[in-house]
Amino acid sequence: MLSQVCRSGFQSFPQRLLPWVQSTVLSRSRRIQPSAIRHVRSWSNIPFITVPLSRTHGKSFAHRSELKHAKRIVVKLGSAVVTRGDECGLALGRLASIVEQVSVLQNQGREMMLVTSGAVAFGKQRLRHEILLSQSVRQALHSGQNHLKEMAIPVLEARACAAAGQSGLMALYEAMFTQYSICAAQILVTNLDFHDEQKRRNLNGTLHELLRMNIVPIVNTNDAVVPPAEPNSDLQGVISVKDNDSLAARLAVEMKTDLLIVLSDVEGLFDSPPGSDDAKLIDIFYPGDQQSVTFGTKSRVGMGGMEAKVKAALWALQGGTSVVIANGTHPKVSGHVITDIVEGKKVGTFFSEVKPAGPTVEQQGEMARSGGRMLATLEPEQRAEIIHHLADLLTDQRDEILLANKKDLEEAEGRLATPLLKRLSLSTSKLNSLAIGLRQIAASSQESVGRVLRRTRIAKDLELEQVTVPIGVLLVIFESRPDCLPQVAALAIASGNGLLLKGGKEASHSNRILHLLTQEALSIHGVKEAVQLVNTREEVEDLCRLDKMIDLIIPRGSSQLVRDIQKAAKGIPVMGHSEGICHMYVDSEASVDKVTRLVRDSKCEYPAACNALETLLIHRDLLRTPLFDQIIDMLRVEQVKIHAGPKFASYLTFSPSEVKSLRTEYGDLELCIEVVDSVQDAIDHIHKYGSSHTDVIVTENEKTAEFFLQHVDSACVFWNASTRFSDGYRFGLGAEVGISTSRIHARGPVGLEGLLTTKWLLRGQDHVVSDFSEHGSLKYLHENLPIPQRNTN
């Protein structure tokens, strides 16, 4: 009979654990031998890491990023997490995943404790089957027929269910933890165990001894004997154990734990009942914020609700234990929710006693949204005036900006590579160039937002317009490039977009003053909040999850940063390029005078830039010619390290170091040289190893050049020009938010136009679609109308 009970609960359960669980639940006396456990840790897809875990208990963590230092952790599993949707039986697949995460953390040297529900549900499953079997036997004896469908199952008393389910639940946990070479122990408690001083000491001593022996205590209220909860029974600031929420909080404080993780069937704490139209997930909850929350009904199973969880969490927080309430049932996150919380990721609601000095990133997103909408309603002249004022501030406040930048450079010395230090550095000439670029943006902004692209007469007195509008809220993430901030801010202002900026900590002083100057410029027309600088400890991965606040992400930094953001962004488009592997092909008919100038400028003028030359393709006929010798001599003078491609190396007796990969962005004075047989061979090489960024041909043959320009599929393709021209400022765009190698929306240097989208405006006179039916009175005209010219004076 019990085997039927067990099998009915094994849906979606990992097959590798099925034999162990069945054997253990059916016969607790039969122990699993250690020799039967093989490659335990290889089963886990969570990386095994070692972290420093020394910490003096007494005060809760102030920030999520500190949770990785938690040594002692209590994980509370709510009834909705442990039980199946039919409330009869356990969610075994979910439990196996939770056990795996707890085991990984335990094997990292942490001290894990579980407070679990589920005994009542497991017992209910067993008792229902026993009742069905008993009734079917009696009916068969009396009538000779089985009428299972007509049988009514009586309401089962919860205490009886708990008594029947406790042993099976513990056997299940024991079987699961054994697979990770971890021993578990069961402890059943009641409220009296905490009120009796001797029992409290005994419980405390038992738990400490179990933790000392690397055993995971599994704690639960003894629901078989526990009396009904009494309302308002908390005495003298000590929480009464009414349910597993209060038990977990009491246990966490008694054991001086660093972190309490409460898993439920909702994402965390919302400001109103989840599912209501205006409900928003609260990222960080502070004591005293209860008045701003409207609690809904309790969960489908269990004794507590969110209000009980918050009360327990605040009591634990007051006792020095950090708390996170998160969803343990969502299939996409339940497999790593516990480890994500401990790693400091933005999961669920974090309870903190330390309020940040400024707004949260969610509040900044809302301010950027509303500020951007106000910005879009300004007249073009007003937006241009803001940008002009910002350009003036860059030159007027030059000394303060350079002083802040000097602090960044001093702090970064010895920590950043030379190319990154060059990007971090500001100078008077850079600020002057920035100011000139901003004034170009101001001039081009006159015809940006609200520009009519198309007009169509649909029918008489029914006219349609397509006009340009801002995208919405942009998130720009940049590394070691403080000059990026005013450029991007100016483009956002010109296009009427709200803007969130996340700069690298290595440029914090520079970014701070540049942002203050930007807000000063915005203040002249009352839109100061449109541009926000994220200064909190927000991880980039967490920012990429704000799909309801951000419309477009633009990364400015290393190829690794771009790849990480493209991977992390869920539901938010990312504009950018992961690499800048730029090629220059020197044709057999190239000019000797032009080649060395173009190669020097492309490689040596600013080797850290994404538009710097990385691979030089030489036509085979140019080897061992004066032109080739001049190129090599120039590179030696400029101290460029040469890497030989496979074909080039085959021509040489003593070659430079052979390139490890033909798909490499060096970002420094290093260059790959490879030999090709023809212009088509060069094109094929670029398509195979390039990044679709910028590629150049050097030749005097116009036909060959045009063939190259038309056939190379990159964002920027040049003839007899340096790769360094691939830049928004040099293109006359004023500045750029980045260079895009994608094929949708914008490609190449992305300036003002790339930050706009369109909307349709239809003006009619009581028009309805039925009038245009086969027997209707109106006909579609679809006439193109002239586009009015805007007055830009």
Automatic annotation (TrEMBL):
Keywords tagged on the record: Amino-acid biosynthesis, ATP-binding, Kinase, Mitochondrion, Multifunctional enzyme, NADP, Nucleotide-binding, Oxidoreductase, Proline biosynthesis, Transferase
Catalytic activity: L-glutamate 5-semialdehyde + phosphate + NADP(+) = L-glutamyl 5-phosphate + NADPH + H(+); L-glutamate + ATP = L-glutamyl 5-phosphate + ADP
GO biological process: L-proline biosynthetic process
Subcellular location per the Swiss-Prot or TrEMBL entry: Mitochondrion matrix
GO molecular function: ATP binding; glutamate 5-kinase activity; glutamate-5-semialdehyde dehydrogenase activity
PROSITE patterns named in the record: GLUTAMATE_5_KINASE (PS00902), PROA (PS01223)
Annotated Aldehyde dehydrogenase domain residues: 361-623
Main location: mitochondrion
Domain annotation Aspartate/glutamate/uridylate kinase: ranges: 71-327
Any one GO CC term of the record: mitochondrial matrix
EC number: 2.7.2.11, 1.2.1.41
Pfam families in UniProt: AA_kinase, Aldedh
Highest taxon of source: Eukaryota
Subunit: Can form homodimers/multimers.
Entry-linked NCBIfam families: P5CS (TIGR01092), PRK00197.1 (NF001221), proA (TIGR00407), proB (TIGR01027)
Annotated family: In the C-terminal section; belongs to the gamma-glutamyl phosphate reductase family.
PANTHER family cross-referenced by the UniProt entry: DELTA-1-PYRROLINE-5-CARBOXYLATE SYNTHASE (PTHR11063:SF8), GLUTAMATE SEMIALDEHYDE DEHYDROGENASE (PTHR11063)
HAMAP family: ProA, ProB
Name of this chain's protein: Delta-1-pyrroline-5-carboxylate synthase
Organism: Ovis aries
